[in-house]
Design brief:
This protein has about 475 residues and is of the alpha/beta class. It contains 17 helices and 20 strands. It has helices at about 65-70, 75, 100-105, 115-125, 135-145, 155-170, 190-195, 215-230, 250-260, 280-285, 290-295, 315-320, 325-335, 350-355, 380-395, 400-405, 410-415; strands at about 1-10, 20-25, 30-35, 40-45, 50-55, 55, 80-85, 130-135, 175, 205-210, 235, 265-270, 275-280, 295-300, 340-345, 360-365, 430-435, 455-460, 460-465, 470. Strand 18 and strand 19 (about 460-465) form a beta hairpin. Helix 7 (about 190-195) packs across helix 8, helix 9 (about 250-260) runs parallel beside helix 14 and helix 12 (about 315-320) crosses helix 13 (about 325-335). The two termini are about 25 Å apart. The relative contact order is 0.17. The mean pLDDT is about 95. Bound molecules: zinc ion (ZN). The site of zinc ion (ZN) has 5 residues, from loops. Zinc ion binds near residues 177, 208 and 238.
Length: about 475
């Protein structure tokens, strides 16, 4: 007998095929039966709503949030049941000796390796599952230093050993963030050498590419070249063309990727459905204050000037009766400047649609889980925004195709072997939602509004989001790549 049966649901099984009406039976935390389902101790009437595999957030910075906010409501409210952490070159591996990483990820203390982090997650389990990338910036700061310098042969060997140990401990690959220090100073050979360490495990190379502005095309080409040389699949992170002059380049970049795929390379991408990006203010102005960038920036969170939160820098400069440059400098000079997060309105709506139409693009929120202040609404709204605004209202793809790209595509990419599909034997990570109403409600001004239309979210058969609220269940774990 099943522990639970969800009856009368439109089943999107994650493979992109036609949905079908039926029941799903769950036993021991896994899907037991699909279609015609026998007796169950507990029954939920799905009222004909959609049932899909739990969504996999392909790009997050939730490494610290899993420990700080274990209910992870900002993820479960979207139907997300697994998050990929360690992105953009910043991850828990090496965080014990990387202050920049601890600050970026909101970690109160650091970790030497992935197993130490896994123990912390297990001691205080979160509602959702996670799978980790090893971050190159964190490794490099821990083993080479935060300054601009070449790694010695011994330091490269130490980085290689740590990548390898992390893969043995269940990491899913290596990430770089080549916009950021100290990763941006690494020679190309170092990136290839480290990416090669993940190849024997079947891991991936995920890259926040060097330049998303004028040099998007060569930067994406560089990431693909690292993957090709190292013999590993490549994931292009938060694919976008930043800056008005570059709008429209996303289609060209996708064409470049299509040609690499046709030539036999394995490349996938993730994207988020907003025209604003977000990140630590200090990282953008490391080489001087770029006024064009400052003009489209808004403060998300700012420990020194909480009154600036939620405001555009240009408005604040007028109010403070100073020039933009002075205002930015004042923020950068204040204590806690490295924890000041900004939003920057840089991307084009047409480019978002171009991304979301592409069959190799997954959805990754890229949310920065700093709940104080005025965070980017992508933290709370990304997945229902794609389903409501882009699939239902604008028809960028069919619902079943988008569900595939939120479930089985990332599950296959990140080595989640028994997740991402509704089929017997798979973990019962599931989301029940109303396809007619599902949509985000978080806005730039009210970024913490839960989504509409996500009715029930199960992780391992346990409800983590139900009736518009997070439950007390904490069934999440740090998963191991390619293993159940
Ligand atoms: Zn990034």
């Amino acid at each position: 007998m099943n522990d639970l049966a969800i009856r009368n649901v439109l089943i999107f099984n994650g493979t992109g095929g036609d949905p079908f009406l039926g029941d799903v039976g769950i036993g021991d935390g896994r899907v037991a039966e699909v279609g015609e389902v026998g007796r169950a101790s507990r029954v939920i009437d799905g009222l004909g709503r959609a049932l899909a595999p739990g969504f996999i957030d392909a790009h997050t910075h939730d490494d610290g949030a899993l420990l700080r906010y274990p209910d992870m409501w900002f993820k479960t409210n979207q139907g997300i049941t697994t998050v990929v952490i360690g992105n953009c070159g910043f991850g828990v591996v090496g965080s014990g000796r990387s202050p920049a990483t601890r600050s970026m990820l909101g970690l109160s203390s650091g970790f030497g390796d992935l197993e130490e982090y896994r123990e912390s997650v297990a001691a205080n389990p979160p509602a959702v599952n996670a799978i980790a990338l090893v971050g190159h910036n964190s490794l490099r700061e821990a083993l080479v230093g935060a300054e601009e310098r070449d790694a010695s042969a011994a330091q490269v060997r130490a980085m290689r050993e740590l990548v390898q140990r992390s893969m043995e401990q269940g990491a899913c690959g290596l990430s770089t963030g080549l916009l950021y220090a100290p990763g941006k100073w690494a020679p190309w050979e170092e990136l290839v050498t480290l990416a090669r360490c993940v190849a024997p495990f079947g891991g991936i190379y995920a890259s926040h590419v060097r330049d998303e502005f004028d040099r998007l095309l060569p930067s994406v080409a560089e990431a693909m070249r690292v993957g090709r040389e190292a013999g590993v699949p490549t994931q292009i992170s938060h694919h976008k063309a930043a800056g008005r002059a570059n709008w429209g380049t996303v289609a060209t970049s996708l064409g470049q990727i299509d040609r690499a795929v046709e030539a036999g390379q394995d490349v996938t991408l993730d994207a988020y459905p907003y025209t604003a990006g977000s990140g630590p203010l200090a990282q953008y102005f490391r080489d001087g204050i770029d006024l064009e960038l400052a003009e489209v920036m808004r403060i998300a969170s700012c420990p020194s000037f909480p009154e600036f939160e939620g405001r555009m820098l240009v408005e604040l400069a007028v109010e403070e009766e100073c020039c933009l440059e002075e205002l930015v400098q004042r923020i950068l000079d204040a204590p806690g400047a490295d924890r000041t997060i900004c939003l920057q309105f840089l991307a084009d709506e047409g480019d978002i649609e171009a991304n979301l139409r592409h069959p190799r693009v997954m959805v990754g929120s890229d949310g920065i889980p700093e709940l104080s202040g005025s965070p980017h609404p992508r933290l709370v709204g990304t997945f229902p925004r794609v389903l409501g605004r882009y699939v239902r209202e604008r028809g960028v793809s069919s619902l079943t195709e988008m569900v595939r790209r939120m479930t089985s595509l990332p599950a296959d990419r990140f080595g989640l072997t028994d997740r991402g599909r509704i089929q017997p034997g798979h973990h019962a990570d599931l989301v029940l939602f109303d396809p007619d109403t599902v949509v985000d409600a978080a806005t730039y001004d009210e970024p913490l509004h839960p989504c509409v239309g996500v009715e029930l979210v199960l992780v391992g058969g346990e409800a983590v989001w139900s009736g518009g609220k997070a439950t007390a269940a904490r069934p999440g774990r740090l998963l191991r790549f390619g293993r159940t």
